[in-house]
Amino acid sequence: MRRAWELAGELYWNAKPVVRTEEEQTWTANLETTRFYDQILSLDWGSNVPGSGAPERIMVAAVQALENRGYRATKRTYELLEEGLIAHKEGDYVRLHQISAELRWELAQAEKDVASDYWKYKNYDSFQAYEKAVRFPERKSVDISAPDFRDRLKGAWLAQFIGAAMGTMVEGYTSENLYEAFGEVYDYLREPNTYNDDITYELAFLQAFSRCGYKVTSKDIALQWAGYIPCGWSAEEIALRNIKNGIFPPESGIYRNPFSEWIGAQMKGGICGMVAPGDAYMAAKLAWADGEVAHANNGILGEVFNAVLTALAFTEKDVCGLVKQAISLIPADSEYHSVVSFAWDCCEKYTDWKKALSDCEEKYKKYNWIHAYPNACCEVIALYYGKGDFTETLHIVTMCGVDVDCNAGMIMPILAIQQGMSIIPKKLIHPAFSELITYMRGMRRITLEELADDTFHSMLNAKKEGGD
User: Fold this and answer.
1) How far is CA 66 from the centre of its chain?
2) How far apart are CA 195 and CA 182, in angstroms?
């Protein structure tokens, strides 16, 4: 193997001098790069969600998320926020880059707010700590060679496409404002499509799983991110930068990442449950490996919750019983458990789902609409009051607002897994759902049939290898 000095020397000693033309001496590429980084930074200070147009300010949200996690933002932090908003409005990118750098430094130096309720709960920093805190149900055998099994997998993906498409149109708004704008939504507000960044991360997991089976590690998954996913948002974008800088999980999800308990892990737990049918333990283990790529603690528990819901849907037909069992598999001394338990108690208290939602909105009003907590509440509410009916469950989760595409994309597959493709109303099956379109390298398009086959064969190969 050649040493680095030999490789560098080969390049240097073989280089032949040239005289470049005036045109070749221009710095056009540098100017284009400058504009690119200015545009990227501008999105941090003010942007609109691609599908719904909802407004976002990710730098403001970063401070909000930090305080949600029990840290104290300083006076200087808030001064920088105000200065940044002004610089962004004025288009002063020199100052905006400076402010952004200083603000990120302030966030990295933030100290614990010991008075915060956050620290009353246990922090789960590893799967080993998590598995000791819960009692898993005995694994129930699921015959993946049964004639209807692939149908259930296909139904799960199709239901996710439907939920994501419906949700993408309305995400980022309150329930009240959705009602004011659209009234009761039971159908697509425009022609649906399969553009959705959330599913991207499930595909990356599936790529890693197809190679490594049930022994897949968070590093295996992180490398798929690095190769296939060109960019992300909030927690995922920070994790991608960390990974590309050689910072691997769990550090990639923790290092200078204020969004580590946002919805990014919770929004992709379904695939972990799909490849672990009837096996809550394996679903949770896979979800933890996947979750710690970009998240930590309660953020990962959100992915575990959805993975367990999905895995147990293969063997549990009662929706409310399924939700209750999934809640029991979240450590009782974690803050995430307090959230899903609160949502469940609200459901038990009221006959009207809107009243349950109102209580949850009030309790978690300090959390961003992309945080795991308000969205976990919406999942519980929609499943509880939907009572297994596909149309009504989709309607409720849509009208709950917040990060709708993530929530609908996770809970709608549960109903298709329980009852198969036949539960999906024909009027919701649009021709666009025959193909998933992504922005991933090497995976721009994949058909629904291919996706179902890839999921099925990756499981089949993993079992043949004895990885489960």
Assistant:
1) 18
2) 22
Q: pLDDT confidence of 467, banded at 50, 70, 90?
A: very low
> pLDDT per residue over 161-199, tens digit each?
999 999 999 999 999 999 999 999 999 999 999 999 899
- List CB contacts of 315: < 8 A, sequence separation 6 or more: 140, 142, 277, 278
What are the φ/ψ torsions at residue 255 (nearest 5 degrees)?
A: -65, 115
104's tokens: 């990120």
pLDDT score, position 32: 86
| pLDDT for 468 | 45
| 3-state class (DSSP) for residue 371 | strand
User: What share of residues in the chain are helix, strand, coil (percent, to 5)?
Assistant: 65, 5, 30
307 neighbors 278 (Cβ within 8 angstroms)? no
Cis omega (within 30 of 0) on the bond before 425? no
Determine the Cα–Cα distance for residues 310 and 296; give it in Å rounded to an integer. Answer: 21
Residue 184 CA, distance from chain mean position: 27
Rounded CA separation 157/94 (Å): 45
Q: Helices 58-68 & 75-90, crossing angle to 10 degrees?
A: 160
Query: What pLDDT, in 10s, does the model give residues 69-84?
Result: 999 999 999 999 999 9
Helix axes 235-244 and 218-228, enclosed angle (nearest 10): 90
Helix (H, G, I), strand (E, B) or coil at 193: coil
Q: Are 166 and 394 in contact (CB under 8 A)?
A: yes
Rounded Cα–Cα distance for residues 263 and 334 (Å): 16
Looking at residue 464, its pLDDT comes to 67
What the block records as the tokens of 465 is 């290898």
At residue 140, does pLDDT exceed 60? yes
Q: Say if CB 342 and CB 381 are below 8 A apart.
A: no
Torsion of CA 338, 343, 346, 352, to 10 degrees: 180
Element (H, E) at 174: strand 173-174
pTM, two decimals, is: 0.96
DSSP string spanning 276-331? STT-HHHHHHHHHHHHTTT--THHHHHHHHHHHHHHHHTT---HHHHHHHHHHTS-
Q: What is the CA radius of gyration of the chain?
A: 23
